[in-house]
Amino acid sequence: MGFLRSAMRATVGPLSGIATPEKWVVDWWTGGGANSAGVHVDQDTALTYSAFFAGVRVISEDLGGLPLHLYEWLQPRGKRRAKEHPLYRVLNLQPNDMMTSLQLRETLQGHALTWGDGVANVVWDNAGQVAELWPLRPDRLRIRSRRLGPGRLRRYYVYDDSVNGIHTTLLPNEVLHVAGLGFDGVRGYSVVDMAANSIGLGLATEHHGAKFFGNGANPGGVLSHPGNISKGARERIRADWETTHRGLDRAQRVAILEEGVAWQSIGIPNDNAQFLETRKLQVTEMARWLRIPPHKIGDLERATFSNIEHQQLDYVTTALRSWLVRWEQAIALQLLLPEEREQFFAEHLVDALLRGDTMTRYQAYAIGRQWGWLSANDVREKENENPVDGGDDYMVPLNMVPAGSAAAAASADGGRGNVRLALNVTGADEALEQAIRKAVELDGGAAGRYARALRGRGMTLRASLAEQYGPKIEAIDAEIAELEADAVEDLVTTHLEPARGRRRRTRTISSFVSALRTLYAPDGPIAAAMGERWLPLFTAFAGDVAEDAAADVGHDDDVDLTAWVRAYVAAHVGYHVSSSFGQLRALTEKTDTVDDLIAAVAERLAKWQAERPERTARWEKTQLPNAAARETWREAGVAELKWVARGSKNCPHCTKLDGRTVGIETPFIAKGDAVDDDAEDGEKLVAKRNTFHPPVHAGCNCQVVPVV
Q1: Which of 247, 212, 195, 168 is nearest to 46 (CA)?
Q2: pLDDT (tens digit, 9 = 90+) per residue, 570-614?
Q3: Pairing status of strand 130-135 against strand 117-124
Q4: CA R_g for the chain
Q5: How do 166-170 and 79-81 pair as beta strands?
Q6: Cα–Cα distance, 602 to 596 (Å, whole number)
Q7: In whole angstroms, what is the distance from residue 694 CA to residue 701 CA?
Q8: In sequence order, what are the residues at sequence separation of 6 or more whose Cβ sits closer than 8 angstroms to the Cβ of residue 63?
Q9: What does the DSSP 8-state code read for residue 248?
Q10: What is the secondary structure of 640-697 as a DSSP string?
Q11: Average pLDDT estimate for 236-264
């Protein structure tokens, strides 16, 4: 032991120019001399360091908790879960009689992170299929190789378990071996061995902190006497001092010193030794060694709401992904027969770790649904919902054709595709339909000129579309109103109504308002539910309007309103949640008692359910088709728009605007301007926003048309 202590002092001595190195670096010794901190570090002691254990635990539990499925390739493309294969049960459910799949995989992954190698014994049945997997202790396993000839080696595993009396040699086909980064392509480096200095320093700081508080949170020191005292007296004084003052339960006791005895503190205070800063740095060091974001092991100093999601994505795509690939390739090479490897493969499902917030997920689903790579049941499966009847159908925009066939399609119908699509709109009057059919009979150029001559047809078709979509809009808004009513009623029960039975509850309006604010937050549950319901419907509505509007001006190129519709839905949802919260918040200020507030909220919810769906449908039947048509014409290069009063002969405001022509980027009425300046004061209509298209007021049924 004397030699080891000397070796330790020789290692830590040069840390500073003073005679005594910093105490928290050298005050712990448990044997060994494998690192500069003077702390014995091995695979067992390393796991007592919280930062290292947390990192190993995060990766092991995340990997073990991911679903691991065996798939079969389908021809010519695609895959399916091969549940009938014997290996599927071993990988996904139960690898042996005593463990679940999670337990086995997190155990082997923990071994791979600490020892460098995770190894399991593979038990094959008589049919040549994997029947069981059993983890092997890496500290009892040696990996050896035998030369078979020039440049040829064969790997084998020597397992000596004296505790259980197991001594055997395993061939490569009898083990599942998952290794980390290594030097020979077989064995992985032990992170514990490589990071011994970092782990030892972390353990040293922890041990020093424990001893520091165990000594009453004071550094060590000496008792000095002005004269000479015997050895026995010295020992007695020291023993009496420690008995009286050492330890947390004896801290802050009054010391009585006699005969000139004085106390002198020695050692370096923790603030001078940067004790806390070093402890923080070691947490970051462990994250660096394990290639994980610091917030995964509890260091939230640099984690914010804006970057933590991206840090999680980085963790999955870097640190975790490399281990997932190692596992999947090890399974393919070591658990599948050679003739099966072209047909079957293992893969982890990482969707759960990549899930964003509700609104982001629903927007992604809407895009996938619109462009045809997701069905309704695909989305429901990702959200852990049961399938519905008819949910396996895939939808695509009507104006999409396979790549390379656009020219052929245009040639086949003489460029009259847009006109023919217009015939699918039900509800068009007979004269209009005959006019369109006459245009179809002409050649492409004449059809375009004939369509431009029928300048009024677009208004009729858009009005027909509005009538088709109106009931759908009303139904969705009724569903949202019911959803809101249920959610708000739950908040009323929780925060305003008295508890039943013996339980007592303090009814507070402030907690009710706070809960409402969360419910109606821009990224809250109501906004998410609205976005999920409005985006598919408004996308379809705008797409149909865009087809007709493009045909109205002879524009043959594709018009993509996807981004515009998302912005439109976001604005619609934002206005709705703000208005709903504002109305309910106002009720809390207008009512005198909690009971009055409960009654007022119930009345407002009933009013929403009874009146709002029809009002929303009436407004959107005018606003969305006009807005989508204007956006289409802008992309087609139209420079001017004209306001057309339709069905509003008795409305002085709409009549005043009828026939007004403006540039497409110029509002018909600017915010704050009166629609009819010459009207009497009581009849003036002042615009609350820049109005680029109808409606200008509730009930307005006007339209805009292109000026070409």
Answers
A1: 195
A2: 999 999 989 999 999 899 888 888 888 899 999 999 999 999 999
A3: antiparallel
A4: 38
A5: unpaired
A6: 10
A7: 7
A8: 105, 106, 109, 320, 323, 324, 327, 348
A9: G
A10: EEEEE--S-TT-HHHHHHTT-EEETTS-SB-TT-BS-TTS-GGG--B-SS-BSSS-SS
A11: 60
Q: At 334, phi and psi to the nearest 5?
A: -110, -20
Q: Across the beta sheet with 117-124, what order do the strands follow?
A: 130-135, 117-124, 175-179
| CB distance 374 to 391 below 8 Å | no
DSSP classification of residue 318 = I
pLDDT (tens digit, 9 = 90+) per residue, 163-211?
Answer: 888 888 898 889 999 998 988 888 888 888 887 877 877 777 776 666 6
- The DSSP code for 190 is P
For the chain, the structural domain boundaries read: 1-217+271-354, 221-265, 406-636, 639-708
Q: Does residue 656 contact residue 634 with C-beta atoms inside 8 Å?
A: no
Question: Which two tokens mark 671?
Answer: 């915010």
Phi, psi of 281 (to 5 degrees): -60, -35
Over residues 91-96, mean pLDDT: 92
Output b/e per residue, 295-316; b: 16+ Cβ within 10 A: bbbebeeeeeeeeeeebbeebb
Q: Are 180 and 188 in contact (CB under 8 A)?
A: yes
**Which pLDDT tens digit goes with each residue over 434-459?**
544 444 444 444 444 444 444 455 67
8 A C-beta contact, residue 194 and residue 41? no
Residue 225 vs residue 371, higher pLDDT: 371
Enumerate residues 6+ apart whose C-beta is below 8 A from 199: 35, 41, 46, 49, 52, 192, 286
**According to the model, what pLDDT value does residue 376 have?**
87
3-state helix, strand, coil in the chain (%, to 5): 55, 10, 35
> Do the Cβ atoms of 584 and 601 come closer than 8 Å?
yes
Q: Using CA atoms, how far apart are residues 242 and 238, in angstroms rounded to an integer?
A: 6
pLDDT per position as a tens digit, 103-122:
999 999 999 999 999 999 99
Helix residue ranges, H only, 123-190: none
Model confidence, pTM: 0.47
Q: Tokens in use for 267?
A: 């050692």
Which residue from 39, 66, 68, 69 is spatially nearest to 52, judged by alpha carbons? 39
Q: Strand order of the sheet with strand 152-161?
A: 141-149, 152-161, 166-170
